[in-house]
Amino acid sequence: MSGERPVQFPNRWFPVARIEEVVARHIVQAQVLGQEIAIWRDDTGFANAWENRCPHRGVRLSIGLNTGHELRCQYHGWRYSSRSGQCSFIPAQPDRKPANAIRATTYGCTEQYGFVWVNLSNTQPTAPLPSLVGDSFTTLRSTHVDAPLSRVKAFLERRRASVTDGGPPDLVEIDVPMRDPAENGTMRTTLLMQPMSDTQTVIHGIVAKALVGNDRLALLRSHDAYLTRLRDEIENLARRDDTHGR
Amino acid sequence: MLKLYDYELSGNCYKVRLLIEFLGLAVERIPVEFYPAQEHKTAWFLAINPLGQLPVIDDDGLILRDAQAILVYLASKYDDLGRWYPRDSAELLGDIQMWLSFAADLNGTVALARLHDSFFHDCDVAHCRAAAHRLFRLIDQHLWFAEQIGQDWLCSPTHPTIADIACFPYIMLSEEGGVSRLPYPAIRRWTDRVKRIPRFTLMPGIFFASALPA
What does the pLDDT average to over A43-62? Predict the structure, then answer.
């Protein structure tokens, strides 16, 4: 029931969303290592990452309501408080305080380098975040890939990208060709891998340069076009290999 | 009195019901039992719409089929503020039409997958789902870059249009056809925004979003 973690997750931080995409009164639906996660910000700005499963009947919390201080399950309206995940109210028993044992499963959640990071393990102390960029950076649009992490990394390694293995999380440094010749041809880009499941991966990206306005938009578009093409190649190869039973 | 030939579980009928609510129109709903009675294929309904499809409106004798066409008509005729279908902007009209056609593509893919899973319709559902994901990737990318320039809606920077209404229902009901929206965070934020349009109304399977802080 609630509070138990039958699966042991590694003590590692994974990026799951760009900070500005965890917007007010919204619930982000994400997945890491096969585990679905509901990520939501309360009205003080605190970011929660919970197992995407109401302790009552297992309905996804991500189809519920973020009221700014609690999540309300869509099914029977059970309410869970920000930070603790403690069930605070059961509509069917409005005069009773819910038992302490009834709580949403909470995960480690922090924000850095423009991303929200989640650690599914309950090991203390938690592993440190990787050291990435300084104070000046631009986060890119994330790319969803219908392929496992192993395939994504193998593909990038063949492209002579520099892959750091097993680190928290897997990082890949690549040089993305820039459309604007004034940018000296390429932009050094760090890709951060989010293993969603055995079959899907999200690639996040960051460049160590703070851009604004039209320059920022141009970078976002050119990188998105590049990463989308990369994604299409990875998926085509995966489909071809699946057809041939590889 | 505007008449709407309507089936409660039809996403296409829901598009018309949404705009009717947004415009505050009075309507007489005439139920046509799509499933299981297949009333839309009976002689009396085929006499109204030979294509045997819902929705159809009858506005004082003007008969229109096709949800997208009905949205164009109702917005043009009854939206005094001219925002849902701004006829004074050729650029916006072109853009809106692009996304109305996209909504028709959703009909043939993600809506068909829902028909298969929920209404036992026979089709190549794996193909429908794969095609739906390709469309979802496209609209997620469009919405993401729109957000980057402060645009909350498919076509207009400042307000929703019938393009948003046309694309919303079958995207929102996608899980009933086995298409998850988990990989599409921009779509998920947009559906919250559509739900916050004043006078937004529900259909089975769709729930209200949280109000924004005051």
Answer: 98
